[in-house]
User: Which sequence fits this backbone?
């Protein structure tokens, strides 16, 4: 009897943990949106084969905050039925297309649930930043 209870407990734990690993995310949002996005055309260069079929930038939106700093919002979507971990970083450029050196920053980690879309928001380090490049890479290299 103890053996049967232990097996039942193990099976239940396995079921619960397996269910948590592949948890889906449901989302609800306003159908009649009042906010207007400044969606920009993007050019994508894909060299990481692990990301080609998993996570991608599906929309870029930009705006300027009240002190004149450029803001960028990237909508990323996980196209798989699995949890996916990626790394990302952003590089900022001035009006002469020269890279702006920033303190800190570097590669950041983000975990996406199955089929999840998430917005990553970036704020330029100075009012001189006029352009940017968002880089993505998978955990597996």
Assistant:
């Amino acid at each position: 009897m103890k053996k049967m209870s232990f097996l039942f407990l193990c099976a239940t734990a396995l079921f619960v943990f397996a269910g948590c690993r592949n948890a889906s995310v449901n989302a609800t949002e306003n159908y009649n949106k009042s906010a207007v996005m400044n969606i920009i055309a993007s050019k994508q260069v894909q060299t990481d084969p692990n990301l080609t079929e998993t996570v991608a930038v599906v929309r870029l939106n930009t705006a300027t905050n009240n002190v004149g700093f450029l803001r960028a919002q990237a909508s990323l979507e996980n196209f798989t039925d699995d949890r996916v971990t990626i790394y990302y970083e952003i590089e900022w450029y001035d009006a002469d297309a020269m890279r702006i050196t920033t303190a800190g920053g570097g590669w950041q980690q983000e975990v996406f649930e199955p089929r999840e879309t998430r917005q990553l928001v970036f704020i330029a380090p100075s009012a001189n930043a006029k352009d940017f490049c968002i880089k993505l890479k998978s955990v597996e290299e």
